[in-house]
From TrEMBL:
The gene is CD5L. The keyword S-adenosyl-L-methionine does not apply. GO terms for cellular component: plasma membrane. Residues 1-18 form the signal peptide. SMART domains: SR (SM00202). It comes from Bos taurus (Bovine). Keywords: Disulfide bond, Glycoprotein, Repeat, Signal. It holds the Pfam family SRCR. This is CD5 molecule like. Residues 24-126, 132-234, 237-338, 343-445 form the SRCR domain.
Length: 451
């Protein structure tokens, strides 16, 4: 009997058991701290009518969700898809004084009769900055995992690292679905020996919002940086039909489908967000897009995009109704960013033929032809905006070699569909068993020299 009472006591005082789950949530926003407001009643989630909805009401929502300061009171129209017609609207005329801990403590009217889902209330709260980041990958949603502790960034040992753990990382970063659990040396350069490894045996159940909520071991003793965990999350923006991965027609992924973006309202701040998200360099504003060959087809997902330029992700910018606009593909958006991976063809008659050089650590160097073939040439020509490679007899290539200086890359292997030579496999920078007679020479169709 004593044991029985002890158990009841232990259970009823255990952490979490006395706390009921939040009675409010934000849906369809970029992260759990922004979106359309929903409140729960008898196990059912309904919306809030935005009559009288103001920043004090949002303050309470943000507090209740542990999301920091209130930043905005958007109307639910912004968060798509809109609520289903059948979903109920539970409350209106919400009037918080701003000090309440929960929305249900605020004055409100529970009989909603003259409100539609286009008036659903929304909330934007300040979210604490992510405590996890991905480094050395091709964009901010792929790379080696780093976590922060007391202002210092450390890595994660890959024992037990799996797709559920990556799901949580992708969610925390607002990066879309988990795609892969790469580890072991994929992202170069490797972490510096002095950088600490903070956690191991991470074991998320996959539903957590942040990696620090997952089970893990904080004493790491038998792990090296060659076992650092990595994550690949789904990309939600891409630039297509242009030269390289940093220039092209903008496409966004929504509801599992890629679609274009209408350029109405597009400006340099929006282009900056896209370039940053892709891990590309500086943005330039391009007004013209596209001709018949480069314009998109199919869905036009966004129009009237409005970014301040500080957003981490295009999803965090305001935009016109998804899929509802009067745009045509003549108005597709084209984005050009600087490609941080630079290559050039030298000594040819045009910039589309010659000896291949790549820039690394500020120095131009050549590429060795071991394993070099048609697919690798395709990637180079495409990346330079020079069309397709053309076959040229070995004799014609000779006049371009030998080069001099550094030999940066060797054993390059591409699949042919890469948007940048950077995405192909190769030996570590500067490691080779070549001499300059083996320098790669490339001829592309556009700007073909007379031979
Ligand atoms: C705000 O509302 C709460 C809940 O109704 C109440 O307890 C509190 O005294 C109010 N504070 C002010 C400053 O009006
Ligand atoms: C997953 O873990 C979180 C945080 O520890 C916990 O709140 C949640 O109940 C767990 N879910 C499942 C399905 O185990
Ligand atoms: C574009 O957005 C602005 C504010 O961001 C808004 O005032 C305007 O009505 C929108 N235009 C269209 C066609 O949606
Ligand atoms: C782009 O437009 C947004 C609003 O639509 C504005 O906040 C921003 O300052 C603009 N940026 C530039 C560079 O004009
Ligand atoms: C599209 O065009 C129609 C007819 O000109 C107009 O009524 C409607 O408001 C437009 N829609 C948008 C989103 O601009």
């Amino acid at each position: 009997m004593a044991l029985f009472f002890f158990l009841i006591f232990a259970f009823s005082t255990g952490p979490g058991l006395l706390e009921s789950p939040p009675k409010v949530r934000l849906v369809r926003g970029p992260h759990r701290c922004e979106g359309r407001v929903e409140v729960e009643r008898n196990g059912e989630w309904g919306t809030v009518c935005d009559d009288g909805w103001n920043l004090k009401d949002v303050e309470v929502v943000c507090r209740e969700l542990g999301c920091g300061a209130a930043k905005g009171t958007p109307s639910g129209n912004l968060y798509k898809p809109l609520a289903d017609e059948k979903q109920k609207i539970f409350i209106q005329d919400v009037n918080c004084n701003g000090t309440e801990d929960e929305l249900i403590e605020c004055d409100r009217v529970e009989d909603v009769f003259d409100c539609s889902h286009s008036e659903d209330a929304g909330a934007i709260c300040e979210k604490s900055p992510p405590k996890v980041r991905l480094v050395r990958g091709p964009h901010r949603c792929e790379g080696r995992v780093e976590v922060e502790r007391n202002g210092e960034w450390g890595t994660v040992c890959d024992n037990g690292w799996n797709m559920k753990d990556v799901e949580v990382v992708c969610r925390e970063l607002g990066c879309g679905a988990a795609k892969g659990t790469p580890s072991r040396n994929l992202y170069k350069p490797l972490a510096d020996e002095k950088q600490k490894i903070f956690i191991q045996d991470v074991n998320c159940n996959g539903t957590e919002d942040e990696l620090i909520e997952c089970d893990r071991v904080e004493d790491v003793f038998d792990c090296s940086h060659s076992e650092d965990a990595g994550a690949i999350c789904e990309r939600t923006v891409r630039l297509v039909d242009g030269p390289g991965r940093c220039k092209g027609r903008l496409e966004v992924k929504h509801q599992k489908q890629w679609g274009t973006v209408c350029k109405a309202g597009w400006n340099l701040s929006a282009a900056k967000v896209v370039c940053r998200q892709l891990g590309c360099g500086k943005a330039t504003l391009i007004k013209r897009c596209c001709n018949k060959d480069t314009q998109g087809q199919g869905l036009i997902w966004l129009s009237n995009v409005s970014c301040s330029g500080q957003e981490e992700d295009l999803q965090h910018c305001l935009s016109g109704l998804e899929g509802y606009n009067n745009c045509t593909h003549d108005e597709d958006t084209w984005v050009e960013c600087e490609d941080p991976f630079k290559l050039r063809l030298v000594n040819g008659d045009t910039s589309c033929s010659g000896r291949l050089e790549v820039l690394h650590k500020g120095i131009w160097g050549s590429v060795c032809d071991d394993g070099w073939a048609k697919k690798e040439e395709q990637v180079v020509c495409q990346q330079l905006g020079c069309g397709k490679p053309i076959f040229v007899p070995a004799k014609a290539r000779k006049k371009f070699v030998p080069g001099n200086g550094r030999i940066w890359l060797d054993d390059v292997h591409c699949k042919g569909e890469e948007q940048s030579l950077e995405q192909c496999q190769h030996r570590s920078w500067g490691y080779h068993d070549c001499n300059h007679k083996e320098d790669v020479v490339v001829f592309c169709l556009e700007g073909q020299p007379d031979i």
